[in-house]
Amino acid sequence: MAGNSSDTGIGIQNLVKGYVLGEERIRILNGLNLEVPAGKITVVLGRSGCGKTTLLRLVGGLEQADSGEVNMQGIKPAIVFQEPRLMPWLTVYENTVFGLDRKEVSAQRQNVEKILSIVGLEKFVNSYPSQLSGGMQARCALARALAVKPSFLLMDEPFAALDYFTRESMQKELMRVQKTLGTGILFVTHSIEEALLLADRIAVIGDGVVKGTMDLFSEKTGRELTEESMLHCRNTVLGLLAVQK
Q1: Which of 1, 18, 99, 242 has the greatest number of C-beta atoms within 10 Å?
Q2: What is the pTM for the complete model shown?
């Protein structure tokens, strides 16, 4: 198996986080609660500066909360950042196995080759980042995260820097990969359209808390944002985003 799906979701309770700015302490998260189901794509949606990335970093263990709890028992996460962060002197294959222990590299070769095939890079294993398009670099970053067999991917606006057509292609690619591997995903974005296209669950955050959640049950591969049901979802999200201090 290329993935490592889990029946256990992520539980976030009363999460508080602040930063010192000059002589003032700014509270970013103010008792945030969220349940992130396993095997689904949960999209955290909010305005710029509302704490989306902070939340993801706390879940990923890159920062410590002031108080509250992130329950990730039995969960193995991997993070995909906004930028691909590939090593320019390494090939696609070498970048993909970068997070593995040396002892694992040879043992995991078949799994890594399968992942590179899943993300469409099987013909570019010996290419360097400078030889790849932006979309291909994003695919390589995704492959690197999947190589460690995570049960959850934590994705911080990974397609934000891509052009419209490449971003649309990568969104479809992500849905296909997630459906193939069954990996849970916590995905951060400020784009309502991206959230509606990708999500099984949308969590709108603002003022440091979850303003509301919405479960989308329709088949993602056939979603049309102009359908009445999706327009209703969009208006609901806009309403939640508007109710902020």
Answers
A1: 18
A2: 0.90
